[in-house]
Amino acid sequence: MKTIKYSKQREAIRAFLCGNRSHPTADEVYEAIRRQFPNISLGTVYRNLNLLSECGDIRKLSYTAGPDHFDYDTSDHYHFVCRDCGRVYDMPSICLPELNREAGAEAPGVIDSHELVFYGICRDCLAKGEKKASGE
Amino acid sequence: MKTIKYSKQREAIRAFLCGNRSHPTADEVYEAIRRQFPNISLGTVYRNLNLLSECGDIRKLSYTAGPDHFDYDTSDHYHFVCRDCGRVYDMPSICLPELNREAGAEAPGVIDSHELVFYGICRDCLAKGEKKASGE
DNA sequence: GTCCCTGCAAATCCTTTGCACTCCT
DNA sequence: AGGAGTGCAAAGGATTTGCAGGGAC
Q1: Could you say which of B73, B104, B123 is where a domain stops?
Q2: Range with the lowest mean pLDDT among A59-63, A92-96, A99-103, B80-84?
Q3: Cβ distance B27 to B67 under 8 Å?
Q4: Looking at residue B83, which CATH number applies to its domain?
Q5: Among A101, B27, B50, B54, which is least packed by CB within 10 angstroms?
């Protein structure tokens, strides 16, 4: 088991994620932490985000071709991904044990109980799409 | 509406995908088509895959940080993604209208009925993992 | 003092794009 | 002829990695 030493940069990253419910990307974390540590590098942010997710302190969400998102909430919950803007939302309070049982029986492997993702278009992007369509 | 002209490269790509149930990546398509058109370029493969998916002839599956996968089967069905090897599998014959209704009611947007993805570890990778674990 | 962590830059992976040329219609 | 399609190479976004110096223990 690898030893982990204290670093104030890592604690700042952890604290930022903890107080943030929006599943920020590495770049968003970088921009936020930079206000506190102007010299921090993006590489360090990536290294720490990966470290924290390997420890199980946070979850790394790789659900699109775009940038990964990071979630401080490691409890079981599903996500919704907007195909338009790439944002990741929590799927509120949906618990589907019968789904996992039913799906698990036919799946080509073992499904992580909380690794279920719905894809669609979020309300923000729907609103923008309608605005654009009516304007043309 | 943009005019689309015939190209033998595109038809070869379409034919390859049609006869392939494994959701190949652009690179896998490239390697396969190269046997028929040794001078085809990866850029052309990407352009045609995007063109075909814009036409609705195929589906582009962007479910991980790794390479996208392409699916000739455009009918409604769900997918399983292996977090280990990145492969995409079909979820066989699972139809969950009650899931879409229940989930849709609380979702932060409109869910595409067939855009539901289960993440986990596939049987192949489970087998490899066990082999590696027992060997150490 | 040792080893982890950092900042920086270069490298990597996947995908898109600009350009000159070719092929379809 | 006109414009879509091609091959090639360069550019692009996101992430990882190598290295020399700095900090935790």
Answers
A1: B73
A2: A92-96
A3: yes
A4: 3.30.1490.190
A5: A101
**What confidence score (pLDDT) does residue B134 get?**
58
Mean of per-residue pLDDT scores for chain A: 88
Domain, as residue range, for B68? 1-73
Examine the domain organization and report whether B61 and B80 are in the same domain.
no
Q: Which nucleotide is nearest to A6 (CA to C1')?
A: D24
Band (B114; pLDDT cuts 50, 70, 90): confident
Question: Do A59 and A69 belong to one domain?
Answer: yes
pLDDT digits 0-9 by tens, B3-35: 999 999 999 999 999 998 889 999 999 999 999
How many independent structural domains does chain B possess? 2
Interface test with B, best of A110, A114, A125 (most B CBs within 10 A): A110
Residues of chain A with Cβ-Cβ distance to B99 below 8 Å are 96, 99
Q: Are residues A16 and A64 in the same domain?
A: yes
Residues A116 and A135 both lie in one domain: yes
Q: How far is the CA of A89 from the C1' of D6 (A)?
A: 41
Task: List all nucleotides in chain D with at least one atom under 7 A from a protein Cβ.
Answer: 3-10, 13-18, 23-25
Q: DSSP letters of B36-103?
A: T-TT--HHHHHHHHHHHHHHTSSEEE--SSS--EEES--SS-EEEEETTT--EEEETT---HHHHHHH
Nearest residue on chain A to B86, alpha-carbon basis: A62
Q: Point out the nucleotide closest to A7 (alpha carbon to C1′).
A: C5
**Rounded average pLDDT over B78-83:** 92
Distance CA A136, CA B122 (A): 46
Same domain, A15 and A44: yes
- % of residues, chain A, pLDDT over 90: 64
Å: B11 CA to D1 C1': 26
Closest-CA distance of chain A to residue B6, Å: 29
Cβ-defined contact of A126 to B106 (cutoff 8 Å): no
SS (H, E, C) A32-61: HHHCCCCCCCHHHHHHHHHHHHHHCCCEEE
**pLDDT tens, position by position, A92-120:** 756 566 666 667 777 888 887 678 899 99
